[in-house]
Specification:
Layout: H1 23-26, E1 38-44, E2 71-77, E3 80-89, H2 90-94, H3 102-129, H4 144-157, E4 165-169, H5 171-179, H6 191-195, E5 198-202, E6 205-209, E7 219-225, E8 229-230, E9 233-242, E10 249-258, E11 261-262, E12 270-274
Parallel strand pairs: 4-6
Antiparallel strand pairs: 1-2, 3-10, 4-7, 5-6, 7-12, 8-11, 9-10
């Protein structure tokens, strides 16, 4: 005689591990897109210095020849208008012991899908528009410190603000840093900094570790200052409709309009070192 053993489902969802977004630390919200899809900002040139002609010709200014300043613009138009939708049938919710719920599923969608997409896009724009992009190299525990201080040197010469610089690394690059005998990282940092994703300080710059899947392929490290990248989110709209026409249950919809822009006059505030990637 066959015996059918009982099967029991617990009201528990095995959630996927996700990482909180660190985009806000690396970017800024200096401009407002409310009421507009495009924002333009001016870029103004300056005048060169001259030797003052103390006994110069009165027909010409002793200060030198006057020239017009150029005023050009950088145009930033939001391109990313993304959305999602799905249905949770009322019986599906009931017969999964409440595990399939509209509110919790929406939070999961934002956490596991929306946030990683926005992060990945923003980081890819920063790497693409970086003002300094050395040739790809193979990072090792012997050369990673030299490459990082080279990034600092380049930024110093470009007069990028010394404070609030951030070094972005993958877990693999961070592993090399920990093995490098020349790197002495300051780990005595505030709780606030740790909550924002900072794992230590190196030569005055905050070190931030970001999972490789959210970064471009072949990412080595990036040194950046938040003044360089504007990352607006103009619209973030999520809705749960209870029993809409034609559906017994919930209809979940979401829309997010976002983008990322690197300012033309601040590209030197991003230094991106890529890795040698073997051809597949």
């Amino acid at each position: 005689m066959a015996i059918e053993l009982a099967t029991k489902y617990e009201p528990y969802v095995d959630e996927i591990f996700t990482t909180e977004s660190k985009k806000e630390v690396l970017t800024n919200q200096d401009f407002e897109w409310t009421g507009a899809k495009t924002v333009k900002i001016y870029k103004i040139t300056t005048a060169e210095m001259n030797d003052y002609a103390r006994n110069g010709d009165t027909a010409q200014s002793r200060y030198g020849k006057a020239k017009d300043l150029n005023a050009t613009t950088q145009e930033m138009t939001l391109k990313k208008d993304r959305s999602f939708t799905y249905v949770i049938d009322r019986l599906d919710s009931d017969e999964t012991v409440g595990a399939l719920q509209a509110s919790s599923s929406l939070a999961r969608q934002v956490r596991e899908v929306v946030v990683p997409e926005v992060d990945s896009y923003t980081y890819s724009v920063m790497c693409e528009k970086a003002g300094t992009k050395p040739d790809p190299i193979q990072l090792t525990s012997n050369n990673i410190y030299d490459e990082i201080i080279e990034a600092s040197r380049v930024m110093d010469n470009a007069e990028v603000p010394e404070t609030n610089r951030i070094i972005v690394v993958t877990p693999d690059s961070y592993h090399l840093m920990k093995k490098c005998k020349d790197i002495i990282m300051e780990t005595d940092i505030s709780t606030e900094m740790r909550l924002r994703g900072v794992v230590g300080l190196l030569d005055g710059a905050a070190v931030m570790r970001i999972p490789a899947p959210r970064l471009p392929k072949g990412f080595g490290f990036m040194m950046a200052h938040s003044v360089a990248t504007v990352a607006p989110t103009k619209l973030e709209d999520y809705k749960i409709h209870d029993n809409p026409p034609g559906i017994s249950g919930h209809l979940v919809e979401g829309r997010i309009c976002y983008d990322a822009f690197v300012l033309d006059n601040k590209v030197k505030a991003i230094y991106y070192q890529s890795l040698l990637v073997e051809a597949e």
